Amino acid sequence: MAKRKKKKNTFRAILRMLCLLICIVLLTLMAPMVISLLASINDESVSIPEIEVPVENEDWALLLVNYDHPLPSDYSFEILTLSNNEEVDERIYPALQSMFDDARNEGINLFVRSGYRDREEQEIVFQNKLNECLNEGMSEEEAYQETLRWVAEPGKSEHETGLAVDINSEVSAEDTYNWLIRNSYKYGFVQRYADEKSDITKVYNEPWHYRYVGKNAAYEMVEKNFCLEEYLENKS
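RE: above sequence
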């Protein structure tokens, strides 16, 4: 019995030695890999590559057209015709459609009453308003100045840019304009001619006139209560 026990102990000792040798060999083989891995973790110079998110340049959406800044003579863009035959700059259509879809889901069926106008159309709109003022008994100068408060001169209208739209809906004007005030900036649109900014824009309150300026600009303009003129002045 004693011999058997001695043999068993000897066998266990040999087995332990073999296991120990195998562990030593494995650690020796894996050591360089482990060291390299630890070094890469602790090395401050190792940087994780950032995922670049493409940001569309929308400087074109910040074009300023007003009494003092006429539309550039060489200005051009691709026109897109809406279902009601009104036209807009095709670049604003995705945002416009998205805004209209979301409004419709809330029971506000928006539509563009007036979009892009070429120079000839703007001349007609301007002349019609001028004639209206003259028919009310105003002098030519009075009629001209009053017309400017409501209609931009040809060549100085945002409607000629394709970036501006007059928006109406099938519900009340109050509900329509309240929804636009609360939500339009989320899609890159702003109310262009607010009453409190008329001393800057030189245009009376037009709650239906919305201008695409891009989401970033729209958010900042609403946050800081800027009209486009103020935004561009502070941006530069």
